[in-house]
Amino acid sequence: MPKNKSWSRFIAVQVLFQMDFNERMDLEVSYIFDEKKINSIIKNMHHINKNLVEFKDLEYSVNSKWLISLLKEVILNKQDIDKNLSEKFDKNWSLKRMDSTLLSILRCGYAEFLIFDNTPVKVIINEYTNIASTFFNEKEVDFVNGILDSLAQKFRSNELNK
Length: 162
Description:
Mean pLDDT: 81
CATH topology: N-utilizing Substance Protein B Homolog, Chain A
Number of strands: 0
Number of domains: 1
Order of helices and strands: HHHHHHHH
CATH class: Mainly Alpha
Helix content: 55-70%
Number of helices: 8
Largest sheet: none
Low-confidence stretches: none
C-alpha cells in the first residue's frame, strides 16, 4: 500500500496546531520523533478525521518517516521559520494575530520547500491550499496561496522559471 503524503501533511498541521494551542500538553518533542510512538498520534488523528469529506476516499496511510522529518524541521527551526514568514506578511499582520491552524499550514509549507526539494513547487502549494480550504474560507486560502507562492519564488525560483 503506498504511503499517502497528503494525509501526512494534514496530520503534521494538526500536530503542530495542538502543540501551539496547548504548550503544556504531554506531547514532548522527543515523543514526536519516535516512529513507534507517533503511530498512536496518527491513530488518534485517523479517528478524529475519518468523516471529513475531503478524506473519505483516501487510504489512511501515513509515511511516518516523512511525517517525522517534516515535524522535526518545523519544530527545530520554528523561530527561523516564523521570522522568515513574518517578513512575507503585510505590516498590519503579525504572528500573534494569526490563527494557529493557518500558521501551522504556513510553517509546514515553508519547511517542505526547504527539506523536500524533490517535491514539485506546484504540489506543495496545492496540498497546503487544499488543507487550508478544509478549515478556512476563500480569503484565507488565497492568503496561504500567496505566501507559499512568495516562498516558492524565494527558495525555488529556478523551478518556477522552467
